[in-house]
Amino acid sequence: MDAYKRWLFSDVLEKNQRVFKVPVYQRNYDWTNIQCEKLFHDIMKANARECQHFTGTIVYINDVNGGSGLNEVLIIDGQQRITTIYILLKALYDASKGVSIRIESEINEVMFNRRCEEKYKVKLKPVKSDNQQLMLLIKDKVQEMDRNSNIYKNYITFKKLIEEIVSKDLELNDILNGIKKLEIVEIILDTSKGDEPQKIFESINSTGLELSLADLIRNYLLMDDTKQDELYEDYWLEIEKNVGYRNLGDFVINFLNSQITKSVNNKNAYRLFKEHCEENNLTHEDILKNLLRTSKYYGAFIGENEYYSDKVRKYLSTLNTIKQTTILPLLFRIFNDYEDNNIDETTLCQVLDYLLTYLVRLIRIYRSS
After folding, report:
1. Are 55 and 8 a contacting pair, CB within 8 Å?
2. Which DSSP string corresponds to 153-182?
3. Which helix (H) or strand (E) holds 27?
4. Main-chain dihedrals φ then ψ at residue 3, nearest 5 degrees
5. Which run of H or of E encompasses 225?
6. Spatial separation of the C-alpha atoms in residues 328 and 345, rounded to whole Å
């Protein structure tokens, strides 16, 4: 492991023929306007005071063979900062059009690779869903972007902040000068020398957002697997669609409660999840298959998908409305039987009706006592 003090703009981003890749086991781009506004204000302070501003660490594995012929690096930590600066540079680039050819040219040199194939021009490649939004932004197709995407929201935030700066008689160059004052510590991992990216990923608690349970689980299942891209596409993305990205943590806890007898909560779930996989000799694909199957049931329970008939989903919606999550381990087993054709839909609805009637009666008894 080698660590260096660097200028984010000139030493890290400006380097030509380099692609920053966010591996599939990483979290999605999660920064909101809160982090973006703080970073922007720090940038303007750095400009006003003509001093450097330390903005955290960037950890990556260097010289990844991705077939591009460029220097490809896998980001282990720092994708939130790099992606955010990239969005800010795009907003500043757009604001400089017709105003400052020098700023346009300078930002263009930083954002895009030169003397390479067109598909490798963009220096940043986030995970699939974020990359789709980033490419629309880069191609000036902002109207086609997902309004719920953090990439879209933060681009709009930066546009407004830039407009405010200009309205105060400051210049676009003041913003660029502040960006040039951002300092980072660049940590380069060398797996051939025993550096362990997964352990480093798990222990990271820097200036970025704390790693969620879903982040840790995705990392554990995908990081060291030779089929990580395939597993991400075939399983993890489908799981996200089935339960909704924001519900992944709760889903994992409920899934684990259906698999083990120990009490599971947000603090111990990751440890217990790993123990469950290792004690049962489950491959990453084994557990992802099981998670994918169960995600259909859980997603239907919380109303995130429509895999089942209106009648079945109505029962599940009612159970969710009265907050009966304690029956989820039993529901998962019932739906396993249904998916395996051991019971038909009529029997499934009868069982759900019995459960609902029983639970409603229990609630009434509890409230009257």
Report:
1. yes
2. HHHHHHHHHHHHHHHTT--HHHHHHHHTTE
3. none
4. -120, 135
5. none
6. 18
In order of 85, 233, 287, the CA distances from 217 in angstroms are: 27, 16, 11
- Residue 147 contacts residue 129 (beta carbons within 8 Å): no
Q: What is the mean pLDDT of each run of 10 residues along the chain (369 residues)?
A: 81 86 84 94 92 87 69 86 95 94 93 86 89 94 94 97 92 94 86 62 52 84 79 91 91 93 89 93 94 95 91 92 86 94 95 91 74
Q: Residue 268: what residue type?
A: N
Residue spans of the domains in the chain: they are 2-204, 228-368
Beta bridge partners of 74: 21, 61
pLDDT confidence of residue 266: 87
Q: Is 58 left (phi over 0), alpha (psi -120 to 50) or beta?
A: beta
Q: Which of 88, 55, 48, 34 is nearest to 178 (CA)?
A: 48
Q: Which residue has the tokens 């969710």?
A: 320
Closest listed residue to residue 363, CA positions, set 324, 306, 312, 320: 324
**So what's the pLDDT on residue 119?**
83
